[in-house]
Design brief:
Bound molecules: FE2/S2 (inorganic) cluster
Helix content: 25-40%
Number of strands: 9
Distance between the termini: 24 Å
Number of helices: 4
Number of domains: 2
CATH architecture of the largest domain: 3-layer Sandwich
Shape: globular
Strand order of the largest sheet: 1-9-8
CATH class of the largest domain: Mainly Beta
Strand content: 15-25%
CATH superfamily of the largest domain: Rieske [2Fe-2S] iron-sulphur domain
CATH topology of the largest domain: Rieske Iron-sulfur Protein
Order of helices and strands: HHHEEEHEEEEEE
């Protein structure tokens, strides 16, 4: 909402209030009420973008950052891991990520801006548990044909290494990719879209 809209709304509200109870009393009564509608500093901080330093992340490593109360993974994928993404396609429920679980600029095979780095909400789309990264392959404890991915410990949903859910799982959707942009090669800003050039 623009400031103009807020001010316009405020003006209309003040005008209506003053016409009922008189000018001096109205301002005193209305401002505390309007102030209580403003988001608190804590709420603003919770929604603020988060700078994620990925400079020391090694291939195959994953770290967690917290943004808006969500656990956001950053996984640095190896060449092998990236190659697995096209190999698992026939077994996925939504291989093209058609169901809006990512910003438009991440609607691609790797579901990320750069193939090497996956940025994703660490939350199963079934009932919200945190899946585990199972990077080893094959891994007969998961699946004899396992090429690496995520396994949810609650009811067994499986996802590939870009968070796309396999067919016939309890989870209905791919995991969510938040908005983010690169401030530099080693710094990601989670919560902000890339700047338009
Ligand atoms: S919460 Fe992940 S499979 Fe149920």
């Amino acid at each position: 909402m623009s400031n103009e809209g807020v001010d316009g709304g405020r003006r209309r509200f003040l005008t209506a209030a003053t016409s009922v109870v008189g000018a001096a009393g109205a301002v005193a009564a209305v401002w505390p009420f309007l102030a209580s509608l403003k988001p608190s500093a804590k709420a603003l901080a919770l929604g603020a973008p988060v700078a994620a330093d990925i400079g020391k992340l090694e291939e195959g490593q994953q770290v967690i950052f917290v943004w808006q109360g969500l656990n956001i993974w950053v996984l640095r994928r190896s060449k092998d891991m990236i190659a697995s993404l096209s190999q698992v396609r026939p077994r996925l429920a939504d291989p093209n990520s058609d169901y809006s679980q990512q910003p438009e600029y991440c609607k691609n095979e790797h579901r990320s801006i750069k193939p090497e780095y996956l940025v994703m909400n660490a939350k199963c789309t079934h009932l919200g548990c945190m899946p585990e990264l199972k990077a080893q392959h094959p891994d007969v404890s998961v699946d004899p044909d396992w090429l690496g991915g995520y396994l949810c410990p609650c009811h067994g949903s499986r996802y590939d290494l870009s968070g796309r859910v396999f067919q016939s799982q309890p989870a209905p959707l791919n995991m969510m990719v938040p908005p983010y942009r690169y401030a530099s090669d080693t710094m990601i800003i989670i919560g902000e879209d890339p700047k338009k050039s």
